[in-house]
Amino acid sequence: MRYFIPTFIIVVVSIVSILGFRGSFSKNTPIEVFPDMDRQAKFKSQTKNTFFSDGKADRLPVSGTAIRGNLISQDNVFSHSPIFNSNAVKTGKLLNGDWVKKIPSSVGIDMSLMRLGKEKYDIHCTVCHGKYGNGKGVISYFKLAPRNLSDASQSGTYLESAAPWSDGQIYNAISIGSGIMLGLKDKLSPKERWAIVLYLRSLQNYVSDATNHGGKKS
Ligand code: HEC
Q1: Is there an atom of ligand 1 within 6 Å of 197 CB?
Q2: Which of 49, 103, 163, 201 could serve as 57's disulfide partner, Cβ 3.0–4.6 Å?
Q3: Domains defined along the chain, listed by start
């Protein structure tokens, strides 16, 4: 009996406090042991905010804000008259839908572009197309057949003289993929993609020179 009454009271109080007030409403501030992120000092979109004279919570970007992903280089972001790259540079196609024949000169063709192309080719393409573009990267041992990119004497490739691809088409294949090949535009900036096109062209010249002179095919 000495323990019964205190135990009984504790049991009754805990049952009532846990279950007793379920479903009843209160205007009092709830006790939050862990407030999580239920309340945040923020304005939801499309709501009012009296701080601004137009009363809207949503704000337009500050004028002169440069959008990301529109191909302007860092120098241009802070310039008063930024140079936006053309559609041809972004897509490899002219506005009338024709392929760009040669790498657009605004990409800036020089040795540094060639080096960039080699670096990016080695990172993104060798696993499949092989170091010299012969289509014999490691992946080819797993029954995937990456195309030969450098040897025009191989039939069925884009290099075949019947319809050799333009630079724009190669750029497009890198961007959005070709057949079962994946597109890589999320990993390579347009400049890097054009750089790879340049490097590929040099691999082709190298391979055709080497084979014309009886050299060993790489
Ligand atoms: C995961 C493997 C893989 C990677 C990585 C890859 N390719 Fe490919 N590529 C292929 C395969 C496979 C094909 C053949 C696709 C088909 O015809 O269905 C192909 C086709 C191509 C073609 C078209 C060739 C033709 O004759 O039709 C080009 C051009 C090309 N790749 C360039 C590149 C370049 C440049 C890179 C690096 C930026 C690259 N690929 C990365 C697997 C790959």
Answers
A1: no
A2: 49
A3: 96-212 (1.10.760.10)
